Amino acid sequence: QQKEKDLVPIEEELKFLDSFEFLINLRFKDRITIEVDRVGLQNFLVAPIVLQLLIENAIKHNEASSEFPLTIEIGKEEEFVVVRNNVRPKGSVAYSSGIGLSNIIERYQLLSNRPVHIHEDFQNFIVQIPIIDQPKSA
To answer: Residue range 90-94: average pLDDT?
Structure first.
């Protein structure tokens, strides 16, 4: 329902994320953990399904086991929503068109004057998405 909109309140995106997280827990059990710092994630707008896309990206590119779980953290740092996951590349590298991240970057070029930041090192993959303020009501 939300994908036709340019922006949605973060609270709506988090409700959708709850349902998505439930499905991930059914499929992966203790192999994937999603930690959401909801305190800072209030009263701003984001592009719809962007959190789901970033979680799917992390799952697609990383191994996850009970011994070495994939941990995905979502929170707010300064003026960005930050999605961070530990890096454990899959042995057989899955094909990646790069469309998911490119799509997010292009969407935010249209929505914000601040860019999406992506950082990867040997331990973490981090995507920072600019927060878009809600319009002030009259």
So the answer is: 69
Q: The sheet that has 8-9: what strands, in order across it?
A: 8-9, 44-46, 132-133
User: Mean per-residue pLDDT for 109-115?
Assistant: 95
pTM, to two decimals: 0.89
Q: Is the Cβ–Cβ distance between 17 and 53 less than 8 Å?
A: no
Q: Are 106 and 50 spatial neighbours (Cβ–Cβ below 8 Å)? A: no
The Cα–Cα gap between 100 and 107 comes to 11
Whether pLDDT at 2 is above 70 = no
Taking only Cα atoms into account, the Rg of the chain, rounded to an integer number of angstroms, comes to 15
Structure tokens given for 112 = 């914000």
Q: Which helix (H) or strand (E) holds 99?
A: helix 99-111
